[in-house]
């Protein structure tokens, strides 16, 4: 059978298995094994799978992933999400839409030590949504805001998805981290402006907020200072990576030690059982992520064997269209897959095909890493999958349905598409910080 046809069968099998609700990691392995058997035989298929499994576990770079997962879990146990919210509220208190704006910046702040969008969505769904509803926010607007703002944690460094992108594309984790800073902050600011304008036009919400007690200067300073552990951890991680003192893996370990030290100092971690929850959650999440990684790496190797990525690269680069049109086609594919697949699955399926195209067209893979992550952020809230939406549904009251949340996300999806357009049109927005620091 023609190798290219086997590559097409490999992709079709994966999509079919995902449609049948087979877990993503297992779907990668099954479709990859069947395709490899069509190319070679079952013995070589198993050998290739074992090699992918070993490289997923044995490669030192992959150890950064469980450490960053543990970092986020410890941050939750240390109650740093609440402190991020309290600190952001000190800045926005008294403004129209202050709780919504606070949620945006608190998600960005929490993202600086967690990198997990689903965790951020769940935590701030419990913390901010009741307060929004009390102040008169509509359930669709409030829930859509939180589901969308939770995606900041993926873009603001340190980001687990940037690590996975770097490992799939052999790019610099440090450069990707710093490339995500401006796009992440820009998204938070644009969301905040939209919330401010929308809330200012809502007379009921404005009147309710006027009745709320205002923070005085001393209370604002106290709330701002309460976020010092978040600032300290972010400085140690990013500063350590930038100065070369730490590798990303060592930076994650240093962040974990710092949060443990802060928790012990403040009395939150008095005995080993106080961190059991974080350790258990990290182990469960790491197991799931590594199963997907094993399947994804195996699947990527099978695609390379089929020569589909190479053939597709030659086809697209020979098209008589401007390069940006090809980039837009690739972005559309990411967007559509984001509606039905988890981000790791998309990276494994698409990056082996598109990265050679992106580099052959002269685009920077660091820039494209931010574009790809922005597209998966949008996919995290768009139906039918929308992982952040379902994560939020798990913590909200029964009167808020999945449909309500999906209705509420669309204004923020439109804002994300506008921001994405600027990032594509002006790559320097993304590349300015890494170029400044590393060139």
Folded structure, characterized:
- The protein is an all-alpha fold and 439 residues long.
- It folds into 2 domains: 1-58 and 288-306, no CATH class; 59-270 and 307-438, no CATH class.
- The protein is 79% helix and 0% strand.
- The protein contains 25 helices and no strands.
- Helix 2 (24-39) runs parallel beside helix 18 (276-306), helix 18 (276-306) crosses helix 21 (343-360) and helix 21 runs antiparallel to helix 22 (365-379).
- The model has no long low-confidence stretch (mean pLDDT 84).
Q: What is the mean pLDDT?
A: 84
Q: Uncertain regions: pLDDT < 50 for 5+ in a row?
A: none
Structural class: mainly alpha
Question: How helix-rich are the residues, as a percent range?
Answer: over 70%
Q: How many domains?
A: 2
Approximate strand percentage: under 5%
Q: How many strands?
A: 0
Distance from N terminus to C terminus (CA atoms, Å) equals 47 Å
Q: How big is the Rg? A: 22 Å
Question: What gross morphology would you assign?
Answer: globular
The largest pleated sheet is described as: none
Number of H- or I-type helical stretches: 25
Succession of helices and strands: HHHHHHHHHHHHHHHHHHHHHHHHH
Helices and strands in order:
Layout: H1 3-19, H2 24-39, H3 42-58, H4 64-77, H5 80-92, H6 98-114, H7 117-127, H8 129-135, H9 139-149, H10 152-155, H11 160-169, H12 173-179, H13 181-200, H14 203-210, H15 217-225, H16 228-243, H17 248-265, H18 276-306, H19 308-317, H20 323-338, H21 343-360, H22 365-379, H23 387-393, H24 402-425, H25 428-438
Helix pairs in contact: 1-2, 1-18, 2-3, 2-18, 3-18, 4-17, 4-18, 5-6, 5-15, 6-7, 6-9, 6-13, 6-16, 7-9, 7-23, 9-23, 9-24, 11-21, 11-22, 12-25, 13-24, 16-17, 18-21, 19-21, 20-21, 20-22, 21-22, 22-24
């Amino acid at each position: 059978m023609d190798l290219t046809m086997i590559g097409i069968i490999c992709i079709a099998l994966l999509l079919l298995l995902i449609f049948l609700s087979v877990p993503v990691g297992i779907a990668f392995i099954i479709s990859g094994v069947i395709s490899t058997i069509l190319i070679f035989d079952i013995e070589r298929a198993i050998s290739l799978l074992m090699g992918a499994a070993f490289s997923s576990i044995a490669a030192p770079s992959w150890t950064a992933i469980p450490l960053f997962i543990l970092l986020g879990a410890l941050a939750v146990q240390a109650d740093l999400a609440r402190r991020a919210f309290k600190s952001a509220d000190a800045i926005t208190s008294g403004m129209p839409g202050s709780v919504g704006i606070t949620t945006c910046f608190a998600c960005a702040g929490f993202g600086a030590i967690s990198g997990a969008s689903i965790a951020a969505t769940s935590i701030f769904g419990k913390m901010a949504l009741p307060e929004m509803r009390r102040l008169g926010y509509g359930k669709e607007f409030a829930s859509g805001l939180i589901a969308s703002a939770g995606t900041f944690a993926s873009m603001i460094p340190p980001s687990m998805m940037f690590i996975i992108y770097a490992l799939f594309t052999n790019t610099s984790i440090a450069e990707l981290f710093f490339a995500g800073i401006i796009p992440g902050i820009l998204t938070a600011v644009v969301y905040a402006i939209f919330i401010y304008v929308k809330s200012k036009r809502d007379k009921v919400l404005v009147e309710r907020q006027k009745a709320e007690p205002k923070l005085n200067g001393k209370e604002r300073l106290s709330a701002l200072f309460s976020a010092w552990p978040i600032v300290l951890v972010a400085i140690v991680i990013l500063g350590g990576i930038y100065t070369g003192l730490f590798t990303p893996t060592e930076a994650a370990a240093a962040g974990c030690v710092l949060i443990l030290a802060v928790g012990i100092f403040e009395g939150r971690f008095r005995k080993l059982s106080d961190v059991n929850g974080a350790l258990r959650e990290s182990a469960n999440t790491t197991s799931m992520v590594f199963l997907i990684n094993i399947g994804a790496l195996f699947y990527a190797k099978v695609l390379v064997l089929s020569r589909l990525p190479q053939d597709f690269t030659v086809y697209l680069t020979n098209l008589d269209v401007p390069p940006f049109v090809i980039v837009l086609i690739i972005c559309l594919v990411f967007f559509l897959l984001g509606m039905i697949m988890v981000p790791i699955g998309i990276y494994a399926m698409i990056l082996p095909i598109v990265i050679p195209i992106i580099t052959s067209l002269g685009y920077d893979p660091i820039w494209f890493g931010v574009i790809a992550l922005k597209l998966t952020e949008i996919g995290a809230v768009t139906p039918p999958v929308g992982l952040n939406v379902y994560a939020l549904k798990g913590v909200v009251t029964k009167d808020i349905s999945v449909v309500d949340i999906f209705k509420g996300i669309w204004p923020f999806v439109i804002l994300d598409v506008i921001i994405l357009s600027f990032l594509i049109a002006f790559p320097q927005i993304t590349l300015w910080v890494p170029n400044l620091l590393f060139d």
